[in-house]
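Quick illustration, no need to memorize.
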Amino acid sequence: MAGHSKWANIKHRKGAQDAKRAKLWTKILKEITVAARSGGGDENANPRLRTAIIDARSKNVPNDTITRAVKKGTGELESVSYEELSYEGYGPGGVALLLEVLTDNKVRTVSEVRHLLSKHGGNLGENGSVSWNFTRRGMIRINAGELDEEEVMLEALEAGAEDFSAEDGIFVVTTEPSSFNDVHEALGAAYTIEDAGIEQVPGTTVELDLDTARKFMKLYDLLEDHDDIQKVWSNFEISDEVMAQLEE
């Protein structure tokens, strides 16, 4: 494979997120609250809520904390009202950025996002400027270990998976968003799931040289760290050589 694998890129980003557990938990709990508000507090009848709870449990968020977030969404506990937005733009090297936002102040958020992008070699784009290149997919990553690849693949496909691949000691299971929860439940009962969620998967990617990668990753970190930005999706690709230099 020519570029650095998507899973390796994700692991690199995930390591930075795990070092900021409190902020990560806050974003997950915000999503749970909004999901419960929009579709009700029963996770079995609310796929979005169920997906958010799966994410929370994978990040070791305590069950009582999850329950409080659900109750805030259903109105049983007082909560801030958030607006759901998405912003599109570009980073250094023309890399696409798709930002999922939950905010209680749209004017403040768009101003801060525009400032971050312009300060670090990017710019805010119009709606549709980059989203055309992304497709929502459920992604489930299983620790391959000593598992039989064909056996896991057959089980994934039987459970309703759309695609299956192997990279960097990880089995990657792709699903339609609508079947993600069912496939996750089926595989989670038998295997160790490293990471799972609904992602925006790019159709084409942009490979970055070392200088551009340094600039882009600085912006990426700042966007991920922003309180109102829930998810940062991009189509960057980094070679093994460049990644090694970044991590020095």
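Residues 76 and 206 are 46 Å apart (CA to CA).
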